[in-house]
Design a protein that fits this description.
alpha/beta, Rossmann fold, six-stranded mixed β-sheet, four-stranded antiparallel β-sheet, globular
Length: 231
Amino acid sequence: MLTVSDAVLHYGAAQALRGVSLAAAAGRITCVLGRNGVGKTSLMRAIVGHHRLTSGSVAFEGKALDRSAPYERARSGISFVPQGREIFPLLTVRENLESGYAPLKRADREVPDYVFDLFPVLKQMLSRRGGDLSGGQQQQLAIGRALVMRPKLLVLDEPTEGIQPSIIKDIGRAIRYLRDTAGIAILLVEQYLDFCRELADEVNVMERGQIVHTGPAEDLDTPEVRKLLTV
């Protein structure tokens, strides 16, 4: 579904990514882990088109995306839930969800029922402003908005950050449903190791802008991988 090959990214003279290669398959959860500042968010933003790679390539369903704008990648089936959620605080929950209509054809512009099945609180709060929701509810709204776009690939950047445990469980169930039932490819950046251990089909560990380990989720229990993730 997604292939990143030898991705190099600079911010001016600073190098954020150093030859990163990564793959994400349909119906699988691929997790990217690492300490703060190792390039995880830079990688996600390069995949969705927010940052232009210095060299290397990103391909989706076999098609190179290197010259594609973010909105073109969204139309091709890539949805992004950014770190910090970035919902519209002055718009209602309904309006936030409807902002996901942008890349869709007019006939497809409706909120899928499964969004409310996964996150019932959103249906109860459709008329409430996004900024009035709790952090966990805002995270559910951000994921719901991404799902409105009917994604083939869902990119999630630290969805459990600052979220209460009960909602983390809800988000985990939703991600598992999207993999198992909808067959969506899921690329997940996370700091919460237990969350990745429970969900991931494959883990990739980053250090200093590079992927230094790739393997099954069980590798998170090995001393070598734990050492890479210890602050």
